[in-house]
Amino acid sequence: MKKNIAILCSGGDVSGMNPALKRFVEYALEKKLTPYFIYDGYEGLIDNQIKEASYCDVAGIINRGGTKIGSARSERFMHKEYRQRAKENLDALGIDSLIVLGGDGSFRGLHTFYKEHKIKFCGIPSTIDNDIQGTDYCLGVDTALNIIKISVDAIRDTASSFKRAFIVETMGRECGYLALITHLTSGSELCLIPEIEYNLDTYEAKFKEEIKNGRRYFIVIVSEGISQKSSEIASWFEEKIGIESRVSVLGHLQRGGNPTVKDRLMAFKFVTLAIDALLERSTESIVCYDAFGFHLKTLKSVVEKPHKLNEELLSLLK
Predict the structure, then answer these.
(1) Looking at the predicted structure, is the pLDDT value of residue 233 above 80?
(2) CB 298, CB 134: distance < 8 Å
(3) Domains assigned to the chain
(4) Which of 5, 54, 196, 231 falls 20 to 30 Å from 251 in CA-CA distance?
């Protein structure tokens, strides 16, 4: 008798989800499992938008950003009666294993779902914010960083041509990972992230001296979670440093794009390990990745501890 397994995407989409869906279908069939897609995240799980998947459903999607099966944030899933409906929908199709591509909020919802109904699951960290405790890497991060790299390199061209300061705002909520890595790899002059306190006035004398010695432009990378608005930082450059300034908010541009080779490979490995874990009777786990490789961690250990940015990376900025 075949076993049924399902996958869904929850929260913000990332480039890497489609390669993950492709691997999910192909590896599930290889392991004699029947794969199901749950469309539009937990909302689709509640509304029974669950369909059996085949090779045809994943042909030609590996190079596409976003997710073919859709994603969503679900307020209804926060309520017990809707989680009960979701469980009944899975039971009706004989689905006893679930893979969830998502971020911290998605996993917290999954934690509650598991405690109530004991549905076997494996989570795959998938957020460009890279803010999930227990893993150094989340699916989609490399593609997002490459999109930001291309954007900053293009902005530098116009900044240098017009003698301007450009304040480039990245996503990340309360995590400054994208901004920090971009700063370290782009040659920007200043990086402001939520994890490190700052005072712009401490840079005034230094920046004025650099202009006096021939500097024509500044590139400033800021994370969306810092205390000041990007427009306020731009005003500071004009009023205190005396250089024309512009703000470029990259926004949802960072979530899209052709998945990089790294994200395609990570998707392949994440999904393979997730299916293997479920076949090996793991009941509630998250696939995590660090300097020592891939590990399975309990959902509780991931969602109940606050995420902290790597101290080694922070030291490079300090």
Answers:
(1) yes
(2) no
(3) 3-140+259-307 (3.40.50.450), 142-255 (3.40.50.460)
(4) 196
